[in-house]
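**User:**
Make up any protein.

**Assistant:**
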Amino acid sequence: MESALNALAHVTTETVRWYVYEDKPERTSYMQYNWDPEKPDESIWVVDGADAVPVDEYAGSRVIDGLKHTRYFPRLIVPPQVRDQLRGLV
């Protein structure tokens, strides 16, 4: 954000968040599923035929296995109107 303040003359400390925003994993929609829930009713259940298995115990899907190993990283959100001016500063 400091780089945006230096590069864009019309941006102030009060308005910089409208031009550059750091989106972090702490944001609610980033929240990771708890792969080790304390109670079965906190699990997402996979129904495979007649069997119902908590998703954390389901071994039949590469997608679920991939989700268990997902990594989350912060990202910068920058509107297209100033993106070219700020590209290369980070």
